Amino acid sequence: xxxxxxxxxxxxxxxxxxxxxxxLIQGTxxxxxxxxxxxxxxxxxxxxxxxxxxxxxIYWFIVVRADRRPPKRTSGKS
Length: 78
Hints:
By secondary structure, the protein is mainly α. About 60% of the residues lie in helices and about 0% in strands.
């Protein structure tokens, strides 16, 4: 059988606790930041607790970088 697959009983409890804490911290931070920016906080927060680090990276590209872009200039002609 493939040695790369583990059952839940084979993983030490401390690792499961650390992973759960990491996911909760990530999801909470993304939720709070999205709420501050007004960008679908529940969607981002729930997605943030599903995996690491993909939701954080996608959130950074879609929300954080988009907010850092300078506003588009309009022509000064009136």
